[in-house]
Backbone:
């Protein structure tokens, strides 16, 4: 499995989660062994120019924090894009580290159906309207090279349009949502043959009071004999033991009992997050 993340240029530079994800990218137990980040860089964030949106020359400079290689490629050249993507895949496969592909392109129309970009970016959009679309540019090149004929190109376009039209027509008649079509590896026994979920009933997970008391006692004790622990900690353990004796639980003890019961079944529990090692919260 190879993870691929798709970003917009403004989001890549502006969203904190991108920076945070890069810092998780090589941590033990968190790494995906290299993610390929594809940035669709249309050089405008809704209506914000790059000079107003970030301090760095490229939106992808945030990836430098982990020394990820960054490939800037002209999206008007499909063969260059293919080449760069295969190099990125090879990099990831060889070094198991993150890699970034910056597709330098433009947005032909507005941010959405309601947006008229000529209001805010008139000069940019005058230039964009002069650009030959990438499909026509590439088709003309292939026809000029003799790689394909005009007839072959037109047939391919017609075939693609037909696929889209047929799918659109079918979507209007569709009354059933086949969930399994959206899963590349459906879990066995999770869905019925028709793709509908089986009943979502959970098996009872309760445990005996005897086991709860046992977990409470263990959670209140010091595992090593004659081991001197911090006085602050001994107060906490003492209070926990009192609660167990009095058949009372607070959030922390309830959490202990939940973890303890899972551990009793031989299931590994890993805690991660703020101050879990010290149990502050």
Residues:
């Amino acid at each position: 499995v190879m993870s691929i993340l798709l970003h917009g240029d403004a989001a890549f530079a502006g969203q904190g989660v991108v920076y945070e994800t890069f810092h998780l990218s090589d941590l033990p137990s968190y790494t995906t062994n290299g993610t390929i980040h594809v940035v669709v860089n249309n050089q405008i964030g809704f209506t914000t120019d790059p000079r107003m949106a970030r301090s760095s020359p490229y939106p992808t400079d945030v990836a430098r924090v982990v020394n990820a290689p960054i490939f800037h490629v002209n999206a008007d050249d499909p063969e260059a894009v293919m080449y760069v993507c295969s190099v990125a895949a090879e990099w990831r496969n060889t070094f198991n580290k993150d890699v970034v592909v910056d597709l330098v392109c433009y947005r032909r129309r507005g941010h959405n159906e309601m947006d008229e970009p000529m209001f805010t970016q008139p000069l940019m959009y005058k230039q964009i309207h002069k650009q030959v679309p990438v499909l026509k540019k590439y088709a003309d090149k292939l026809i000029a090279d003799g790689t394909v004929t005009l007839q072959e190109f037109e047939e391919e376009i017609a075939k693609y349009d037909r696929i889209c039209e047929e799918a659109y027509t079918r979507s209007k008649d569709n009354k059933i949502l086949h969930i399994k079509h959206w899963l590349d590896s459906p879990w066995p026994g999770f869905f019925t043959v028709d793709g509908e979920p089986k009943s979502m009933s959970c098996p009872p997970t309760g445990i005996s009071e005897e086991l709860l008391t046992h977990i409470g006692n263990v959670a209140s004790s010091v595992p090593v004999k004659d081991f001197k622990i911090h006085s602050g900690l001994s107060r906490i353990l003492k209070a926990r033991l009192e609660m167990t004796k009095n058949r009372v639980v607070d959030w922390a003890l309830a959490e202990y009992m939940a973890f303890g019961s899972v551990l009793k079944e031989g299931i590994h529990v890993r805690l991660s997050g703020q101050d879990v090692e010290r149990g502050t919260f």
